[in-house]
Structures are given as C-alpha cells and as structure tokens.
Amino acid sequence: MFKITNILFKKNNNFNKSSHYRWNNNTLNFEVISKINVIPLFLLTGIEDQKNRILTNTSKFAEGFKMNNALLWGVRGNGKSTLVKSVFNEVANNFNNLKLLELNKNYLEKIIDVYELLSKNTKFRFIIFIDDLSFEKSDMGYKNIKSILDGNINNQPNNVIIYVTSNRRHLMPEDMIDNEKSSAIHTNENIEEKISLSDRFGLWIGFHNLSQNDYLEIIKKYCEYFNIEYTQEDLANSLKWSLERGNRTGRSAWQFILELASKKQIFINF
User: Quick one: pLDDT at residue 194?
Assistant: First the structure.
C-alpha cells in the first residue's frame, strides 16, 4: 500500500491544472478532466430541499469546516449525479481550493491509497465522488469504503469528504437484506454488517418520483433557458413522453427537451 501511495504522491504533488479529476486505475494516477458539462444549478427543479442540503454541506466544506460525507439515494434519473456536479461547479467558482475527484466504483480497492494521498495535500480540499454505487452478496468491496468512512484507526482528514450516489438506500438490494433475516444464524450481526455502511454517511439525501407539476416546471425552465417557444400541446406531449418511458424524472424531461429543440430547429450547445 505504501508503494502505491508513494508513486501517487510524486506524480500528483499538486492539483493546480484543473478542478476536476478522474482516477485511472492503469496509471495509478488522477487524470485531468478539463471541463464537465452540467446543468446550471438554478435549473434543477423539484429537488429544492436536496439542493439546499448538499449546497450547504459543500459550501461549508470549501470554507474549511469539517463536514459530513453524503449519500444521495433514490429513484434513478432524478438528478443525483447532476446535483453533485452542479453544486460543485457553483461552489468551486468561489473557492479555487476545491477539487472534485471521480472514482469508479470498480476501483474501490484503491480508495485507502487515494485517501492517504489526499490527506497529505492540505493545500486543497477534495470531494471524492463515487457514482451509482451498490454491492451484491458476494461483493466485499463495501468493507474498504466502510473502514474509510468511520472504522479506520485514522480519523478522517478535514480536507476530504466522500459523495456517493446510489439507487439503493442501504447500497445493497433489499432481497439480500431479507435473505439475511430469514437464514442467518446470527441474524442481527449479519444484517448490521450489511446495512451499517449507509449509516456511516452523516448526510442522507433521498430522491423520489417527481410530481406532474414539478415535471412540467422543469420542461418550462428548460424551454425558457434555451429560448424554445412552447405550447400547451408541447407540454401535453412532454407528459406523454414520460408515460412512454415509464417514469417522470428530470432525465426524461431533458430527453424530451432535446427532442423538442430538434423539431423546432434550435441547437442546444451544452
């Protein structure tokens, strides 16, 4: 573990090139992401409480406070990943020391090494972002991140927090937890071992199905922002679009906007 960390530290003795980086498991290094294209924060609609909570946590962290790790969980397509990146861009405009580091969920075995590297670089404040994280029954990777969040003998450094998105509240399928309840000899211990990971996040932010009004408000805001003239028929078609896809989410709203813009010969450069 020391060898990997030492290599990383020599290669990455500064993070001055960009605000965004992605872990490359082949080079054992963070690669620069020159730009991330995300929706402006003010356009995110129907998730005001979620927006305010993660914005406050991120802003305070950038200011130098020790803040909570965050788990954003819930319905797919309702802006969990988008919110993390949009909030980061908003806050990073005022704090050059804030860095977003994307770590693929398949590389969790390196997280302890990454963690040690970042704790040495106190010039910056780092958000490790792990998108769409979940674990299956035979997957023991959760123990790595679990030890980092709370169980490690070293206290979490003030300059590192972790933001995770998942479709699962406990990061594991419910039937897996149910199976533990029905078959385990030491039921309580086994269940606690599986679900205690989510408890290590001080900030839980849930995402649920959008109301029809919120969905239509998203459509309207997008149209106004991109100068797309819309009619009541267009709004009705947006609802039909969501029904055909079986979900009323921010993602389906965005997909409809792309379709509507093309029909009206409007180019979206985003």
Answer: 58
